Amino acid sequence: MSKSTSVTRIFLIRHGETLWNSEHRIQGHIDSPLTPTGLAQAQALAQRLQAQTFAALYSSDLGRAYQTAQCLAQTTNLPILVDQRLRERNLGCLQGLTRSEAQQQFPKEYQLYQTLDPDYLIPNGESLRQFRQRCISCLEELVKQYPGQRILVVSHGGVLINVFKHTLHLPYDMPRWFEIFNTSLNVFSYKEDHWRLETWGDVSHWQSTA
């Protein structure tokens, strides 16, 4: 199969549940450790994928993603390749706050953040457009580096939203109606400069954590 017609697949995974996920805090670039539940989720996913073959394992450099990737590395025997472009969106002044705290302390900024305006630049953060450009450029670089192969990528909820909307050609400001689960398995294929969504929100491995 030639490179021009080969299909490359990215298995895009959100990190396991974190302490701040359980507290409903805005994380962004500030980190929070996996909870015992989050670690169990990551280990269950690792067991599920251990018999499968991947060309590479990439991860965001943020601890919650890297800790999840470490579980996958143990069963796939792949080194973890870190790329900062796979980070969550930098949410600036809103990071570390619950949504109610953000509304109280930064009412204007939080309201503008909620509009999903692609060019709204959160103070000390980044815009949605900047965020999407770095995510998509990173993933397109990877699929061209591994034509016709399968890649594991551990990242964040915001990255998943961006890739989902980019793939389905949805506007930035369209409200999210779909769920994003911790350690969910989401498969995107890339062929001849076109993205396609194959699997979304697969958490069947959670059964082993019950």
TrEMBL record:
The active site is at H15 (tele-phosphohistidine intermediate), E88 (proton donor/acceptor). One of its GO terms (cellular component) is cytosol. Transmembrane segments: none annotated. Substrate binds at R14, H15, G16, E17, T18, L19, W20, N21, R64. One of its GO terms (molecular function) is phosphatase activity. PANTHER family: BROAD-SPECIFICITY PHOSPHATASE YOR283W-RELATED, PHOSPHATASE C1620.13-RELATED. This is Phosphoglycerate/bisphosphoglycerate mutase. It comes from Thioploca ingrica. The lineage of its organism: Bacteria, Pseudomonadati, Pseudomonadota, Gammaproteobacteria, Thiotrichales.
